[in-house]
Amino acid sequence: MTPLINLAAEQKSADVTDWAGRIGWVVGLLLFVALVYWLMREGWKWRGTLQGDLPELPTAPSEPGEPKLVMSGRYHGSTTAGQWLDRIVARGLGTRSKAELTLTDEGLDVVRPGAADFFVPTDALREARLDKGIAGKVLAEGGLLIVTWAHGDKLIDSGFRSDRAAEHAAWVEAINSMRTTSLTTTTEGIAR
Question: What predicted TM-score, i.e. pTM, was given to this entire model?
Answer without folding.
Answer: 0.73
